[in-house]
Design goal:
Blueprint lengths: L1 E2 L4 E3 L2 E10 L2 E3 L2 E3 L2 E10 L6 E5 L9 H11 L4 E5 L16 H10 L2 H20 L4 E5 L2 H12 L3 E7 L8 H7 L6 E7 L7 H10 L5 E6 L8 H14 L2
Parallel strand pairs: 7-8, 7-9, 9-10, 10-11, 11-12
Antiparallel strand pairs: 1-3, 2-3, 3-6, 4-5, 6-8
Helix pairs in contact: 3-4, 4-5
């Protein structure tokens, strides 16, 4: 696990790329092969006493525009953040996305699925804590960011608060989400778009209902999957800033 020689500073925000070497492991009788996981760490000037893990959406990557936007918003509050490429995404993708419906499921499965997600994010958080110290930690991730984030939030006791949403018990790890939802015990803000094309809002609200924590809030808005209102985006950062202390 190491930093790349690519540190970049924009104003009060420093961006550093890193690579994780995650060993092969066996989960539920399935062997997940060893892999390199690329990541990125954003820190505000003067350091940060809080950290948020950022999960990108499907067919995108760790440095997609809206993830960088969230990182910048968090840094303005004195909060560091990190992101990694999910299974079969970003620098871990074998080819460019063509839009075929089965592509996403294949990328998720061939990249190791939920088992890889849990090991990869734990390795990333371990690495950053070893470099910068343990701090109150939260999660922000919608859509595939919830496919990754709900299992991480349910199983890693270091996650104190999470912003999740745009996902139900659907897709290649739908059963994992349904199984692990009752294990989520931290504060959760859950966003739902009522006109999502492929995850019906009823499935999203059912997943929200299944979350084990009593400390949760549901925010629903009309509109398609990619039409999350900017006030909800800003509100999610306010939520993390307020309660991640």
């Amino acid at each position: 696990m190491s930093w790349r020689n690519s540190e970049m500073t924009r104003g009060d925000l420093t961006e550093r790329l890193f690579d994780l070497d995650v060993a092969a492991h066996e989960t539920n009788g399935t062997t997940v092969p060893a892999r390199r996981v690329p990541g990125i760490y954003w820190s505000p000037a003067g350091g940060a006493e809080r950290l948020v893990l950022l999960g990108h959406g499907g067919t995108t990557h760790k440095k997609i525009d809206y993830i960088v936007d969230i990182a910048e918003r968090l840094a303005a509050r004195g909060i560091a953040s990190l992101a990694i490429d999910g299974p079969g995404h970003g620098e871990r993708a074998d080819a460019e996305w063509t839009g075929a419906p089965e592509e996403f499921e294949c990328a998720w499965r061939d990249g190791g699925g939920t088992a890889a997600v849990l090991a990869d994010w734990r390795a990333a958080l371990d690495f950053i804590e070893a470099e910068a110290g343990a701090r109150p930690t939260g999660w922000w991730g919608l859509s595939m960011g919830t496919m990754m984030g709900l299992p991480v939030t349910a199983t890693d006791e270091r996650i104190r608060i999470a912003v999740l949403g745009l996902m139900g018990g659907w897709g290649p790890n739908g059963p994992d989400l349904e199984r692990l939802a009752p294990e989520v015990s931290c504060l959760v803000c859950f966003l739902v778009q009522w006109d999502v094309e492929f995850v019906h809002h009823a499935a999203s609200t059912a997943l929200y209902t299944a979350l084990g924590t009593p400390r949760k809030t549901l925010h629903g808005n009309p509109g398609a999957h990619a039409a999350v209102p900017q006030f909800e985006v800003g509100g999610s950062v306010d939520y993390l800033d307020r309660y991640l202390r």
